[in-house]
Design a protein that fits this description.
Organism: Diaphorina citri (Asian citrus psyllid)
InterPro entries: Haem_peroxidase_animal (IPR019791), Haem_peroxidase_sf (IPR010255), Haem_peroxidase_sf_animal (IPR037120)
Keywords: Oxidoreductase, Peroxidase
Pfam families: An_peroxidase (PF03098)
Largest sheet: 2 strands, antiparallel
Shape: globular
Structural class: mainly alpha
Strand content: under 5%
Radius of gyration: 23 Å
Protein name: Peroxidasin-like
Oligomer: single chain
Length: 317
Amino acid sequence: MEASDEGVYECMAKSPMGEVKSQPARAIFDKSKGWTKGLKYYGYEKPPARVVSNELISTESITPDPVITHMVMQWGQFLDHDLDHAIPATSLESWEGIDCKKSCAFSPPCFPMEVPHDDPRVKKRRCIDFIRSSAICGSGMTSMFWDTVQPREQINQLTAYIDGSQVYGFTEERSRVLRDIRNDNGFLRQGILSAANKPYLPIAGATEVDCRRDPTESNIGCLLAGDIRANEQVGLLAMHTLWLREHNRMAKDLRDINPHWDGETLFHETRKIVGAMMQHITYTQWLPHILGPDGMVKINIEWKFIYGRMRRYFSQF
């Protein structure tokens, strides 16, 4: 069963579920009342998001975990960037012409977060600008069939599968930019080499990634990866670097074993193995820490299935 960059699988099912720009399934029911300032829930108003963040997340006391490391968080972020990315609103202005970057008005797509007067970090601002994501066609409006407003649904512009799209991109165009097409070796493009002769990610173009670096602090540009969010923080960037190196290492090994394979075959066979490695890490190493043994049983993930399925996959190579 083969998959394209858009996640369209060539199989008998011919189902569009999970492909690029499809609607994610809801985990919980929709809140039909929407968001209304001052609306009370069980007699209380909901506190502003910034207040919740400051009170619950910000802390000066850090307790080391005796079992898990920071890598549990880092793999979670890296994995999330393989599974979902909501498409932002196409405009930063409302229908009334309100600039979401300059106004604190709630006017779609502007959805600003209020800043409390005693905020410890954000000063001299009444709000933090925030833009709603785009809605899938036909949602969030009155249905001509049901004569009621339908729930607003999101658009996922990535595949919903663990397939390494954060490494390889989610479109054919992105994949071509990431690949080393100068050589018939199935490699991903590499940047400069480290002192230990290890490759870094290549430098990105002006519009290829979400680059928010301060040019006054460094003359090194942002780096290119399959996901535009790769430069968000250094831990995430390190993960992208590791998987670039792993792909190229695996492609070299496959070429040594199969010298008759061309670069196209090497690239796609390596990509399948890398995707399987990510699935294996997620289901056998990461999820048990997140869900615990009881949680793994409740969602019906059995070890015999995981190990058996993965070994059968690798036995093909």
